[in-house]
Design a protein that fits this description.
This protein has 15 helices and 12 strands. By secondary structure, it is an alpha/beta fold.
């Protein structure tokens, strides 16, 4: 089998800072006006990033309402896109499939246009080998020649650079450090990273709220499987807790703080708790669930006459079941991690203690969404973007249990457990009047 000829078309703007506005104009006003009937989007590789890409997909669908839009995505994320209004077909990637194999998977579909959401050379190779004639992606190193339209980084892009230990110690000591107090533009949030690529294909770059579709049938089936209260079944609030974070311990509010917050809220609200987590979180989730369940000083009983319950789902849910059970919760307390983004995208308000990362860049939902509470400590060294704290973890230890409890109680007063329905694409749950 012969290799396809390499595309040598040069983009109109280099990746230097000499002409960033020209690249932005290229994205906002694409040069190509050929009809497009079949589009493939190369999806991202992580759950949180996938959710943050949904506004771009929704805008792409609005720009091409009659086109067939397929998503080439890692197999582990394929079920996330079930029922999604922006996607017509999902093409799962095998875990260790080579770029050539992925390209062969694309060839029979005859796509007119490809949009690459990842910045990797591999993703560009996949679409080039798949003989997609028009390929749009960011002009990152080692792949410009594989793109027919190489888009420079958008105005407002912020690189999440890890601070060195020296920088962190200098900031704690009050010394001068370049960029110590970042002030980021409105377009810094990561959803804009994907929206600008959609804009390069002719879509509107105006941000929408991330959206993941979950049906009523899925919610009821998940509740039945795990013994959770069915929608409308009980007046007792169902709250969720997600104490893990795959990136590293610097993103994790202390385990004992999660437990203390859960106990305080159970005492004040007599609520059910659902404990979430992945396979790596099973042991911690079991200990958290056991400690909450052992609480004796509960003020109320549910409508069935039993004490509020604790459900441990860590390591037990499929991706679709995770979406459905998160949708059942009135509020979720969670670290900055994939399930945080999923919860917000299915319409569940979240309370998030942020440590090493920044809500301005990767917060849930739309920036400044009033349905969520994003809690940060006023410490000079954050955000450091590190996996592990090299000093005393003050960014997380400084967030008190009472701050989280107060935030959850405020959101619980607004959210309606009885109003479970699919949110409209790009919108979400409508907060009830207090």
């Amino acid at each position: 089998m012969s290799r396809p000829a390499a595309p040598f078309a040069s983009p109109p703007c280099s990746t230097s800072d000499a002409c960033p506005r020209a690249a932005f104009e290229q994205a906002a006003h694409p040069r190509h006006t050929l009809p497009v009937s079949k589009i493939v989007v190369r999806g991202v590789n992580w759950l949180g990033d996938a959710v943050m890409s949904t506004p771009a997909l929704l805008q792409l669908r609005a720009a091409y309402p009659n086109a067939h839009i397929a998503l080439l995505t890692p197999g582990k994320l394929a079920d996330l896109w079930r029922h999604h209004p922006a996607i017509d077909a999902v093409l799962p990637l095998e875990p260790r499939a080579s770029p050539w194999r992925a390209g062969l998977q694309l060839r029979p579909h005859g796509f007119d246009l490809g949009i690459l959401l990842p910045n990797s050379p591999r993703s560009a190779l996949e679409l080039w080998w798949g003989r997609v004639p028009r390929r749009i992606g960011y002009a990152t190193p080692w792949r410009r020649w594989l793109l027919t339209e190489a888009v420079a980084q958008r105005p407002g892009h912020v690189a999440m650079r890890k601070r060195s230990t020296w920088e962190i110690r200098s900031l704690i000591a009050g010394g001068p450090v370049a960029g110590a107090s970042p002030s980021w533009p409105a377009a810094a949030h990561h959803i804009h990273h994907y929206l600008e690529l959609a804009a390069a294909a002719g879509a509107d770059p105006i941000p929408l709220a991330p959206h993941i579709a979950v049906t009523q049938a899925e919610i009821e089936a998940a509740a039945s499987r795990f013994g959770l209260p069915q929608p409308h079944e009980s007046a007792v609030p169902v709250l969720g807790l997600n104490a893990g974070a795959e990136y590293g311990p610097a993103k994790r509010w202390p385990r004992d703080s999660f437990v203390a917050a859960a106990l305080a809220l159970r005492r004040r609200l007599a609520c059910h708790w659902v404990v979430f987590g992945g396979h790596a979180d099973v042991a911690q989730a079991a200990s958290i669930a056991a400690e909450i369940a052992a609480q004796a000083d509960l003020p109320g009983r549910d409508s069935a006459g039993g004490a509020p319950r604790v459900f441990n789902l860590a390591g037990r849910t499929s991706l679709r079941e995770l979406c459905a059970t998160l949708r059942l919760c009135r509020v979720l307390i969670t670290n900055d991690t994939g399930p945080m983004h999923v919860a917000a995208a299915v319409g569940t308000p979240v309370v998030v203690p942020f440590g090493s990362t920044s809500p301005e860049l990767t917060g849930p939902g739309l920036p400044n969404d009033p349905r969520h509470r994003l809690v940060c400590a006023d410490v000079p060294c954050r955000p450091c973007f590190r996996r592990e704290c090299p000093i005393d973890f003050r960014c997380m230890r400084s967030i008190s249990v009472e701050r989280i409890v107060t935030a959850v109680i405020g959101l619980t007063a607004l959210a309606r457990q009885s109003d479970i329905h699919d949110a409209a694409p790009g919108q979400g749950i409508r907060p009830a009047s207090p």
